[in-house]
Amino acid sequence: MKKAVFFDIDGTLWDEEQQIPDSTREALRRLKENGHFLFICSGRTRIFIPDKDLMPLGFDGVVAGCGTYGEFRGETKFYHKIEPEQIKKECEFLNGLQAAYILEGRYALYIDKERFEKEFSYYNQMQTVLGDNLLRVSGNEEQLEVSKFCVNYLKERQEELEQELAQRYGIIHREGDFMEIVPKGFNKATGIQEMCKALGIAHEDTYAFGDSTNDLDMLQYVAHSVAMGDGMQEAKDAAEYVTTALWEDGIYNGLKHYGLI
Description:
Number of helices: 9
Largest sheet: 8 strands, mixed
Order of helices and strands: EHEHEEEHEEHEEHEEHEHEHEH
């Protein structure tokens, strides 16, 4: 019976330098050889998932943008974006709080780099991956295409920020003062559910691997969940099984544990 296995990217498939262990490559090859479906399931929106580095590993599909987008073998199965007028209002609100933010869509990411007081660690990476698809917010207000966004906030304005956004969005706290903001009703779990419904995959045949707080919904939803051994404690608490660390053959050992390879 075919199983569907969903993998987070950062901290799960590869490390902070985007290095993938050989054991992970071998595990994915064997998983594909055994006839199972392989999916990327990421908080990144589709444009920020580098095909040349990941898709050749055998992935059949992608659930991206915290469940707002899904594709299978190159065909888009669903895409849910924030209405243009609404995202313009959110930008006005964030500008009023002097918050630094990144708007994320299927086709582009938008950022005004000068809003960040210090060098933003992901900016150079984004620029390398996205090229002309990394755009400014300012000057593109009339053509924003966004399904989620991230905010790096000022602590003294945190309560005001969260009270306003929580009316319309789910808020995922990441490291430091960094938050992912996703429209209510969408997360990695809903993306998996929508993909499985489209493909006729039974819930009992679903597996997921993750490492952080934006994986919690996914880990709690699938029939069998695996947290990376060097992941966040919240992910370990949510998972059915905790495997070894990423560089200690974590993916390989997790798949082996369930008899998938």
